[in-house]
Amino acid sequence: MIRKTKTGRSTDEQTLNELSSAHPSIPLLLEYRTLFKLVSTYIDALPKSVGIDARVHSTFNVEGAATGRLSSTNPNLQNIPVKGEMGGEIRKAFIAEGQEEDKRKALGVLIAPKGKVLLGADYSQIELRILAHLSGDKNLEKAFKEGLDIHAITASKIFNVPLDQITRQQRMVGKTMNFATLYGQGPRALSQQLKVDYATAKLYIEEYFAQFPKVRNWMASVLEFGYKMGFVETLSGRRRYIPELQAGNRMLKSFGERAAINHPIQGTSADMIKKAMVEIGRELSVVSRQSSDKKNLKTDSEQSERSDSCRLILQVHDELLFECNPKNLEKTAKLIKEKMENALKLDIPVVVDLKSGSNWGEMTPLKI
Length: 368
Known about the structure:
By secondary structure, the protein is an alpha+beta fold. The protein has 14 helices and eleven strands.
């Protein structure tokens, strides 16, 4: 059944995806919309945000989301595409200082050739790790403590297939199931996302909770607390009041329940990366001062060529992006990784993946 709006039948992305096999023009329309958004939102708009220093300066809102996540505006640098060939091309436009000196000079900006590199530090599956900590589920804990593939494990249980025989498509279903749990997704929404019938989606959910029983118990206890107190908390004790839990409207109440389950997880993740940002900032300031004290710069030219060890330039939810002096890259990366992995003490190992490169779209894994 095609959804309807006030003006007629819906042509939103979800509807068109469901109808993509009905006519050859529908996939072309979806592709056109994707390309149009890339051009209008990024290719045409981002150059207008470039300042005289050849940088894009965004505004970050500390309480941009109800969960405590940062948000970014004017422009929004947290929604720069990462998936797909065209999306990756957009990220290539964001370069480290000194990598494109000639282009910067063409803009009338004189910048010394410092030749810095970008360093990305990304929490690996942090919300699922926080769920494992909060719920205390032994199977979930075991998977992370032994470094197993949590998505493949979930798929193995759902499809009743040995772990070493899980296909790529089955693993994707397992991944969807794991993240659907974080957002309190029900069988109807899950069936639409996985393109399966309601009964199959319901069975997947039952199989999931059979494998991770304490996750369901934790979710029930969070809802009980939320209904009683009117709020839920992150691991750090930061509250989110959820009046929707008391709503008479069924849809509003369902929203409140999903928010109550998600906040302790996503909110704790937000607290964690903010704490890491503060601690990393302090450490990098100390490193920068020590580096400056050791140098005996005699001329303005030499002074202009001196570069600080590293500085944070962007936060994208679970990822931090730094601009660093390549000479100190490994040492700085080790410091950043240690601070991020120990920002909050969890019973589950926290893993931060590192990558580096001359631009945001072409970064390679960094092992230290």
